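Lab notebook, bench 4. The sequencing result for the construct came back, and we need a structural model before the next group meeting so we can plan mutations. Quick request posted to the team channel:

Model the 3D structure of this chain.
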Amino acid sequence: MPTPPEVLPPGEVIAYVLADIAIILIAARIVGGLMVKVGQPRIVGEMISGILIGPTVIGGQLAKGAVTSLDLPAVDGSGLVNDIFPLQAFAFLSLLGSLTLVFFMFLVGLEVEQRLLRGRERQILVVALTVIVVPVALGFLVGAILDEPGKWKSPETLTGGDVSATTHGLFLGAALAVTAFPVMARILQEKRVLNTAMGGIGVGAAAVVTPLMFLVLAGAVASAKGDGVPDTVAVKLGLAIVLVAFLFVAVRPLLKIVIDKRFDPDEPLDGDLFALLLIGAVATGFVADRIGINSLNGGFLFGACVPQVAGLGRAVIDRMQQFVVVFLIPIFLAVSGLQTNLRVLEFGLIGGIVLFLAAMIAGKWGAGAVAGRAVGLNWRESNAIGVLMNCRGLMILVVAVIGKQAGVITDPMYVTFVIGAIATTLMTGPLVGVFIPAAEVDDEREKTITKSLAAIPAMTGGPRALIAPGSPAAAPQAMVDAEALMSASGERAQFLVAHLPPLAPGGDYVGAGPEEEHFAVKRALGWLEPLGEAIRGRGFDVEVVCFQSPDPPSDLARLASEWAATEAHVGPTVASAPLRDAGMEIKRPG
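Done. Here's the predicted structure in token form:
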């Protein structure tokens, strides 16, 4: 009979936790950085880094037991991995990872914007329902095949043992149905097709898929055997409906009143308002946990119920992003990786694993492509939507963690989920490049620039100068530069005042939502237009251009070149190399 591991003194637990976090962050930054260098999302590297510091590579096994306690006995672990991550330290990291997911789900909910559904409701619903219904149906089909006695060499290791077919099918269906909504929206922004028919349908469908997937997941959790307060699925789901109604009918209007009173998009996010939102996320997570639908669903629901005030999502994400994305999410991914032991996979399980991965890809890519074609997109556009829907990011790991906690997902199936997360995320970028080629991306950039210049009256004669401050702080110096050019020029100088706000950082996990594009431009124009008016007030021809860009330096150079600027006055944050390559004389303050 295994003996309980030695209980570490509290001081040693803290020492192990600090050392483990340092190891996790170092591995995450190194491997994540390598993935970025080869054009892959950082999240893939952080997933892999967790596996590299786990039992798959360094051997042994983690101690297993009640990871919600720091001192309860458990089955002894073994090997180097258990020496580095002893049970009590791993328990702390696991709890931190669970808290991370509550905040992450809150941010994802905050990004799911109702305005994405406007204008193409029928097409969006057709695509969204298809890429939910087909994967969930496949989940039940695959679950039934995996559960079939004698079908596989070791069927008990791919199923949850004493788990109902309904619970098993719902968990597998949720895993097959999940889509990394933030990643999809970011790729569409970077490819400059968010505002096309394909982009609108794709991101709108993903926005619908996300809450529907969580509905499936809530049903799966409710049907699993566990310690929730209600003891029947009907009661759990009934209480979940009451919670949703309370959030959207009672809480949302009250939040709107508070936000209108305390939020100013031109000022830093109010501390009390930020605290209120965090309290709401954790409190709703607590209620969801007590209901029996998991705290992560609560975090998502509260984020979704927050009123969508322009600039609020960006302000909250800016405040939380560095801590959540740089610190907390790598810890969660490491906890996931440490529980991913590829050595548990047996040859006899390969057939079942391949079946699941095939269903994962066919259920999203195939279903998304067919649905896209059915709503009027061509095959190339439809395949692009299918590939983007197929990207799981870390969202499938959320299902894996919940399923493992509920005793439905076994170690080999957990490993299969992780393999699916890495594989579908890795394949997304290259395949999107096939279906949305670089030439089309360049065409979309040209359309944006042409549209911006089309509104500018034709100007003739005199030197043409681009004024690109880069930030509000650089605007006064830009005015000084413009005045110097006015004095030095014997001809009537003409000015193009431009600023191209970049996409919000952090797109591998959360961004600021597509709606934030309009707010970013509006906020920039708030300081850019007064600068243009000041120059115009001196009697010179001035035009102002502003649009959000995934590549501001290159777009600024193309804009200036097509406007035929002869020189550029750029602020300290503006990259001058692309402008210089375009043949312009560069003048930088100082």
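The domain at 441-587 is CATH 3.40.50.620 (Rossmann fold).
Will bring this to the meeting.
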